[in-house]
Amino acid sequence: MTGKYFDELEVGMKFKHGGRTITEMDNVLFSALTMNTQPLHLNEDFASRTEFGQRLVNGIFTFGLVVGLTVAELTEGTIVANLGYDKIMYPNPVFHGDTIYAESEIIEMRESKSRPNAGLVKIKCTGKKPDGTVVVEFERTAMFLKKEK
Predict the structure, then answer these.
(1) Is the pLDDT of residue 1 over 80?
(2) 11 burial class (0-12, 13-18, 19+ CB within 10 angstroms)?
(3) Does residue 56 contact residue 40 with C-beta atoms inside 8 Å?
(4) Residue 66 and residue 137: Cα distance in Å, rounded?
(5) Number of compact structural domains in the chain
(6) In this structure, is residue 1 part of a structural domain?
(7) Can you tell me the distance from the alpha carbon of 71 to that of 79, in angstroms, rounded to the nearest whole number?
(8) pLDDT in tens, 67-78
(9) Which residues of 45-57 are buried (b: 16+ CB within 10 A; e: fewer)?
């Protein structure tokens, strides 16, 4: 697996992950699949008359994309589960055609009290446009497996 085990991580480690360009189809399909009828995401006429001048990408999609961009390098095959997400903030909007890159920083770690083969890791995740504009920030806690000895 390409993910990291608990034993391979240290507080302060930083990772830069790949990126992906968000399409109109991504936004409209995600909004429709999740029953989000917000016209800011689906109605170009409505959105064109807002302060943004165009449709916004659904924030939950942006959040999910950033989580997904971190998987290959951090958690693919090496976690038991995600335990929670905290402090989710969207400081700037995302529009169709924007490319989002993800960054992660290990900010806290501890041994699991209930599972000797695992540890809990808190990760600060950030989604950015190529110019460095932050579009989403959050903390993610996951239970990572330890390497088998």
Answers:
(1) no
(2) exposed
(3) yes
(4) 9
(5) 1
(6) no
(7) 10
(8) 999 999 999 999
(9) eebeeeeeeebbb
Check which CATH number belongs to the domain holding 101 and give it.
3.10.129.10
Residue 51, classed as helix, strand or coil, is coil
What whole-number distance in Å separates Cα of residue 111 and Cα of residue 93? Answer: 37
**Domain limits for position 137:** 6-145
**pLDDT, tens digit, for every residue of 7-35?**
999 999 999 999 999 999 999 999 999 99
Residue 23: inside a domain: yes
- How crowded is residue 22: how many other Cβ atoms within 10 Å of its Cβ? 21
Structure tokens at 142: 């996951």
Inside any domain, residue 36: yes
Going by C-beta distance under 8 Å and a sequence separation of 6 or more, which residues neighbour residue 139? 85, 86, 87, 107, 122, 123, 124, 125
